[in-house]
Amino acid sequence: MVTIQEILIPFHRLTFELEIDKFLLNISLILMMMTNIMQQVDKQWLMIDYILSRTSPTKTLIKLTLNIYIKLMGWMLIPIASGSLGLTLSTWVTLLIWCEMFMILRFKHVHSKTIYFSLLVLMIVAQSLVTFVPGLTIFILGSVALLQQPYFWIGMKILLWVLLIGSKLQLIKKYESLGGEA
Amino acid sequence: MIKLNQVSKVIKGTEVLKEVDLVLKPGTCVMIHGHNGSGKTMLLRLIARLIKPTSGTIQYEASYRFGVIIENPTFFLQESALYNLKYLAGINQMISETTIINWLKTFNLDEVKHKKVKTFSLGMRQRLALCQAFMEEPDVILLDEPFNGVDEGNLEKIYQIIDQMKQKGTLIVIASHVKVPVEGLIDEEIKLSDGKMIERRS
After folding, report:
1. Which of A117, A121, B48, B194 has the greatest number of C-beta atoms within 10 Å?
2. Are residues B140 and B64 in contact, defined by beta-carbon separation less than 8 angstroms?
3. Domains of chain B listed by start with CATH number
């Protein structure tokens, strides 16, 4: 029986080696989460002209972000089942980081499917290499480093999340809603 | 009043609008004609402040509220018509649900207000888009091909509503390849070709 914690951190507790079966489950979970983020961001983007024509870019951004976060709440329940507060908080912040990365690239007019595949590949590579490069922990769901120093990595993830929100705030001010013509 | 002075827009190295001069007055209806890619939609986007001019200026005499339909009408397809309108009305919270429902009635969408937008025909989506553009009675209404897929009966109704809004002092700008057959509704016609204004008639 594989536990939620083993799916989120697919490494052997003693040898720190990547366990392929759990890694595949981990990737499947990332795939489902990413797909849902893409769908939610795309859905909100459909209305961006209508929202931008009604309010300021900053308020548009807040409305879009809150709506997307609310729609992703279901995923927040999964890490709770791990029984670990650190892992739960870390997974929540990671999900928000992915969401912010997705939105930033949308503000840069990068096509949704391009973002999806790029982020997916980045996450798979990061998950595979995290044992050798612990810094990659800030992008992914879990690693051995996260188990050892959970609150340090949660702090780093929150810092990254705040930086991404700051970047997004700057981008929305310069954003041009070009629609399908551009 | 909205004044465009020598407005140009370059996107990815292509000049999509070239030195457009235009004065748009409240209580008038302006029609923009032009073939696909002539710059009609870009001009509407610029007026709506969804994009910024590369050169030239756009002056707004007041802090206008906008109602827009730009390109194809898009909504949350899995949600109802009423949900979509309530979502948009919730941004500025200026109108009540009763007002929204009255607008749905005006556009003959009252009976399908609880149906998911994905079940709507193109004409129904177009009317829903018009509904969202008109419902808050904004100062400026910008409509990009608003008559696509709309049947004759509803077209007449839309012309009437446009006329009523115009009488109330709303500035309405319509980009369309369709000629409006109603006498006196259009105050000014503009023709764009390759981003340049080539004709202007009052």
Report:
1. B48
2. yes
3. 1-64+174-202 (3.40.50.300)
pTM of the model: 0.85
Report the distance separating Cα B143 and Cα B123, nearest Å.
15
Residue B171 φ/ψ, nearest 5 degrees: -90, 125
Nearest CA in chain B to A182: B11
CA distances from A120 to A138, A156, B21, B138 (A): 15, 21, 47, 43
Contact B70, B41 (CB under 8 A): yes
Query: Would you report the helix, strand and coil content of chain B in percent, each value rounded to 5?
Result: 30, 30, 40
Domain range summary for chain A, segments of one domain joined by +:
28-174
Interface predicted TM-score (ipTM) of this complex, two decimals: 0.88
Q: What percent of chain B has pLDDT over 90?
A: 76
CA dist., res. B37 & res. B117, Å (int): 28
How far is the CA of B201 from the CAs of B20, B162, B189, B197, in angstroms? 15, 20, 5, 11
> CB distance A46–B67 less than 8 Å?
no
CB contact under 8 A, B91 and A55: yes
